[in-house]
Amino acid sequence: MMMTMFLTNISSLFPDKSLPLVQPALVSSEEGHAAQCSCPNCDELISRFSECSICLEPLQCCGPCVCPWCGGVWCGRCSRRMSKCAWCRGALRSPALPCLALQRLINDLMLPCRNYRRGCTELLTAVTRVKHEEDCKFDTMVCPITAGCCTVPFEELSSHLQKTHNIIAVYSQKIKILIENFQTKLKKTACCRTKYKIILLHQKSAFIIKVCIYNYHVRVEVMRRKLGYIADVKSESKKSEYCALIEFQSKALCTKSAILIENEAYGKKAEVQWNDVVMKSDTDEAITIHVNIGKSDADLMRKEYSES
C-alpha cells in the first residue's frame, strides 16, 4: 500500500512528463558516420578522436599522435611533416611521439570505413580495416594517365578515360586488338613508329597495354597501376601477381608468349618479327593481337595456354 501511494504521488508531481530509463537517440548530422550509433559518445566523442584532424584519415591506419600542450590529435603521417601544432602552434618534437594508450583504445573500437561519406556502412576494427578498405566498392579511383587529374568511382573511370584522354578503356581482363591493312602499316614503320594504347580495367587496377609497330617488328608491353587505396605502399613490390598471355595471329603466322606484369612500369616485352614470306604476300591482311590478363601462377598459365 505504501509503495502504491509513493508511485501515485510521484506521478502526480509530473502529470505531463514521462520518465524514460534511456534517453531517446539523437538525430545524427549528414556528416556523421553513416552506420554508427547516434548517441553522444559515438556521434561526437568517437568521431572527434577516431580520425586525423588534419587529413581526416582513420587513426586505426597510421596511429595517433597527441599535442602535449593542447591535446590535439593527428596521425603519424601528418606528424612527420609538422614542427608546430596545427591548433595551438606550440613547438613539437619532430615527429611527435605516438600515443600508445589512445592507439590501444582506437584499435579495439568498431569504426566506419574511410569511404563512409561515399556510402559504405561497414564498421571495422584495426584487424579487418586494411583488407576491407583495399577492396571497398565505394573507393574512388585515381586517373592512371595524368598525375593529379582526378579521382572518380571505378564504374565511371572508363568514360573519363575515353572522353578526357581519348584512350580506349574497357572493363575486362582480356581484349582482342585488330589492326587492319597491317602490311602497309608495317612497311611505313621502317622510318617511323605507330603506337596504340588500350587500358583494361580489372580488380581496381588499370592494365595499360602499349602496342608499338616499328622496323618490321610488333612489340606489346603491359604495365599495372593500382588505382584504389593502398594501405602500405611499401608492400607493393615492383612485380605484381599478374601476367599477360599474348597471342599474335594472322593467316600466315600464329605465336604465343607470356610476360610478367610490373607495377608502375612497362614489363618484359612480347615481340614478333614478320618474315619475308609474310611481307611478300599479295593480300594486305589484318593481324589480331589477343591479350589476356591472369594471375602469374604457373599452373594457371599452362591452363590458359591449353585453352587458347
TrEMBL record:
Family matches, as PANTHER family: E3 UBIQUITIN-PROTEIN LIGASE SIAH2 (PTHR45877), E3 UBIQUITIN-PROTEIN LIGASE SINA-RELATED (PTHR45877:SF2)
Origin: domain of life: Eukaryota
Keywords: Metal-binding, Zinc, Zinc-finger
Protein name as catalogued: SIAH-type domain-containing protein
PROSITE patterns hit by this protein: ZF_SIAH
Any GO BP: proteasome-mediated ubiquitin-dependent protein catabolic process
SIAH-type domain ranges (all copies): 108-166
GO MF, one annotated term: ubiquitin protein ligase activity
Family matches, as Pfam families: Sina_ZnF (PF21361)
One GO CC term, this protein: cytoplasm
